[in-house]
Design goal:
This protein is α+β, with helices and mostly antiparallel strands. Helices cover 32% and strands 14% of the residues. The chain has four helices and five strands.
Amino acid sequence: MVTVCRDCCCGTAKIPGVDHAAQLATLKTELGSVARVRAVNCLDACEQANVIVVQPSTAGRAAGGRPVWLGLVNDPDATADIAAWVRAGGPGLAEPPEILDLYAIGPSRRVRRAIED
């Protein structure tokens, strides 16, 4: 699953020069046959907008894959790199393109607490 933040900052005019609708449409089109793409309300990482979280598949999780949080995904090339990685298997099954290391972030304290509880 690919989760795309869309709320107070992500996906809004607060992040200018990005075609937010096209970003979401691209992910849905590119990944529709291999992953579920969903837009959600705030992931509480507004300073990193646009935020995308790539969840491992069942096989990926069994292979040790964990969710990967990516921030400042405001470039169509980064969106394409994410789509290519997910098509290749995603976390646990395929190494992400090295360029995505630049986008890696951690979840907020609020989200980490919710996960831990």
